[in-house]
Task: inverse folding
């Protein structure tokens, strides 16, 4: 026969089920993205069989992370961390596809149709709104200025240099925000901040699960490449076709989206 305290235990069990429901609702957009990208990878491997082994190797970490998800361990942090891993390796995967010839470029166009830059910008903006609202300028404002510049650029109203200026302004502030968040984990917080360090930032801010810290460390080269390129373009010391520059812009937005999913976002609030 049940006892009176079993009633409370039954209520607690329901609350746990509700918590699982809430976690699933929060994670659903990311799970849908993962599923869409996995379908794309299946298609790529079928279309480029000679490169399938190399492509599968490039996505081993995020796929293993997806395989480890289950109803018993599902949580928002694990899902977003795995999402970050997918987008951390996506640029490399597309380079593999390109290496097999222009006849496969349509697969990259299909990838862009699945993973739209404007949607990523809006998602990033929603997250950034929760980060240090006291700081000026507001980080999300810089992002949306870059989004507006991107729209003008696509319409031909501004040039590559103008767009590079806006996106690099965001990049500088965003990197500074990551550095500040890392230093604010110190106890006590030093009066004079030490120099920025991507590996130390990754170790401090990266989620401890799903290999997020390792994946975040691997993005240092991309961060430096984007900064150098945007600087050259805005100073007009480097010229490139619009289509090539747009690829860098899209890749950088995806890079930021990956970072946001790999870090412990609570440390930036």
Result:
């Amino acid at each position: 026969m049940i006892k009176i305290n079993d009633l409370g235990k039954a209520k607690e069990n329901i609350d746990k089920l509700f918590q699982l429901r809430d976690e699933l609702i929060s994670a659903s957009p990311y799970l849908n993205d993962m599923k869409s990208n996995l379908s794309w990878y299946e298609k790529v491997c079928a279309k480029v069989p000679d490169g399938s082994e190399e492509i599968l190797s490039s996505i081993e970490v995020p796929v293993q992370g997806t395989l480890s998800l289950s109803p018993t361990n599902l949580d928002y942090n694990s899902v977003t961390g795995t999402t970050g891993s997918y987008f951390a390796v996506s640029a490399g995967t597309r380079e593999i596809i390109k290496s097999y010839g222009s006849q496969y470029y349509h697969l990259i166009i299909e990838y862009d149709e699945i993973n739209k830059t404007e949607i990523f910008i809006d998602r990033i903006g929603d997250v950034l709104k929760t980060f240090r609202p006291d700081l000026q300028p507001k980080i999300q404002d810089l992002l949306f200025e870059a989004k507006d510049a991107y729209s003008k650029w696509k319409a031909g109203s501004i040039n590559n240099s103008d767009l590079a200026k806006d996106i690099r302004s965001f990049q500088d502030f965003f990197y500074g925000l990551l550095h500040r968040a890392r230093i604010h984990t110190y106890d006590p917080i030093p009066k004079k901040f030490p120099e920025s360090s991507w590996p130390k930032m990754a170790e401090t801010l990266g989620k401890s699960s799903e290999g997020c810290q390792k994946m975040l460390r691997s993005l240092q080269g991309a961060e430096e490449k984007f900064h150098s390129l945007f600087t050259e373009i805005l100073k007009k010391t480097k010229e490139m076709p619009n289509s090539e520059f747009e690829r860098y812009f899209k890749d950088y937005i995806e890079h930021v989206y990956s970072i946001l999913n790999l870090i412990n976002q609570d440390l930036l609030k």
The chain has twelve helices and no strands. Residues 116-269 form one domain. Residues 156 and 187 are 50 Å apart (CA to CA). The mean pLDDT is 93.
